[in-house]
Task: inverse folding
């Protein structure tokens, strides 16, 4: 089989290009069937490769003189900065030089760029950003987590199909359960969007739709794929991060302000807290795929280190090897027939 | 000054009537200027009063033969069960026998009942459920947390004014900061509702509007009053509860499955975990006022015990003593002039 080729935005993310190059080298050492195209100012990327002592032939540096920052207007940046590391990486997928693209840069620019340059799968109404998150009893996915703030019921039905195929292919679960995020478990609860979406999802025989899921129960991880509009999905994502961080901070504060006994207790529990931190570590899960575009497009976390980049690469490899893109197309075609 | 009179749904909540009667007696022992009207089947309430050895003259039992459960359709239940403990309690406020009403029963029935029986303040477009929640650096309020799932920008502006007056009167903070829940900090971020609400809030000179607040930052408690539609507010409320509970459960599981050292550590930290649990205890904060109705209407948590009921009573007393209702009316009138 031919090697899989991955385009990676060499200048995307808080720790670029160091973390990007580090992650790519880690992946090359782990997988023998991957090739990389790193985009960015040639000298800077080559210097980094040199610094990290890479001398193999699995990496091509693609020169790109511009960089898109987090503060730029996404659509404007994509249209104007054709020679940016992000646009160049997206072009590599569009022209089929590469099978996948990964960026840890601006989320807005990445989503806009994927839609404008890579393009949507025929029939997909709205692509969706789909982070995988750690739940108590297993990982779960949110579709959509921020790409589409105003949604129609039909979009959410497509989100469910795309999420299902991604879960099956990458998280390796047969017949994943699909839940509709709602503020009540009963069918008639919710806003116009959820009430109408519930009706549609109930009719879908090819989905393991288990009904409404209240946000209180999301983090157990008992439901595999959660569909909602991007405003609600992004709220869930950020409440999860914010609350987990607040709770852990309060625990540390309380321990430090308590007596000597508590301090000894905290010391003895250090390995436990370390393992908990690992459980909540987004780096373990790689990035968030942007489902519905006609290519494998993975958004890595802005603060990704080498390990997170490597995991995003592993994720794009699973996406590719398990033909998730073809399966999404099949499902959506079947549905529209 | 005349005693304040409080109507309380004797049969509302998982622990009624025991918890209700317990809470009322606790409040009578603490505050000398309160009188109570407990609604419910006369014999049952009187038996409970007898069980708890109450013999004073501050409590009137108002007979009500029906009970509204959580499983009933709210509007239907309010219309059909005129002789329910909830409807009777609401009627006492409507006819001005009482100054406030408290119920730990069905939230849906309570909100519908307050709107239909007590009625809205003139000029209020939508009343809002407003829980007070514990943040890392102080309590914060969510307006609306579930009463209005589909909102218009004008509703949210009123939510901000009502939240402001409640915060000032009951949580005792001058010039509370008002934040708009949004998925980005920049003005142009968000969905149609938040973009248009942002524009309106910016123009309000009598509000200390500090801009968009991302859900990640809500639980710090640095912003006093957060406005959003009821779907998003309810999601925030339930994600907060769910995530805090998940994180604490994972910690306990990890501690128990780790070695002896971790178990000793956990033992030594017991008082710390107890104090954290208290920090997250809704019982400390009483209930959630339903702001915008023409009376003091407090929804206590369904699983309230006597202490939670007593705190909801304290809350309605502060609401009353600080004339929050009048101040809300003044603010909204000023605004509509």
Result:
């Amino acid at each position: 089989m031919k090697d899989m080729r991955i385009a990676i935005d060499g200048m995307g993310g808080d720790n670029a290009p160091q973390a990007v190059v580090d992650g790519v080298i880690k992946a090359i050492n782990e997988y023998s069937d991957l090739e990389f195209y790193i985009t960015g100012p040639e000298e800077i990327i080559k210097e980094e490769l040199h610094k990290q002592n890479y001398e193999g032939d699995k990496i091509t540096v693609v020169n790109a003189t511009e960089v898109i920052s987090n503060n730029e207007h996404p659509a404007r940046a994509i249209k104007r900065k054709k020679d940016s590391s992000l646009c160049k990486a997206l072009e590599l997928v569009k022209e089929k030089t590469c099978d996948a693209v990964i960026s840890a840069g601006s989320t807005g620019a990445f989503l806009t760029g994927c839609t404008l340059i890579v393009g949507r799968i025929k029939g997909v109404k709205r692509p969706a950003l789909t982070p995988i998150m750690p739940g108590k009893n297993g990982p779960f996915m949110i579709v959509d987590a921020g790409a589409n703030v105003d949604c129609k019921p039909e979009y959410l039905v497509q989100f469910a199909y795309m999420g299902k195929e991604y879960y099956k292919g990458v998280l390796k679960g047969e017949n994943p359960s699909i839940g509709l995020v709602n503020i009540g478990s009963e069918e008639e609860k919710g806003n116009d969007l959820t009430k109408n979406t519930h009706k549609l999802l109930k009719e879908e025989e090819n989905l393991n739709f288990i009904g409404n899921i209240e946000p209180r129960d999301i983090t157990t991880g008992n439901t595999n794929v959660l569909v909602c509009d991007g405003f609600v999905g992004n709220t869930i994502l950020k409440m999860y991060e914010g609350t987990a961080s607040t709770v852990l901070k309060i625990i540390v504060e309380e321990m430090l302000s308590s007596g000597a006994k508590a301090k000894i207790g905290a010391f003895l529990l250090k390995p436990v807290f370390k393992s908990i931190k690992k459980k909540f570590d987004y780096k373990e899960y790689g990035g968030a795929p942007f489902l519905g575009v006609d290519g494998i497009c993975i958004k890595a976390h802005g603060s990704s280190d080498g390990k997170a980049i490597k995991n995003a690469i592993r994720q794009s490899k699973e996406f590719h090897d398990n033909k998730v893109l073809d399966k999404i197309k099949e499902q959506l075609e079947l549905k529209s027939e």
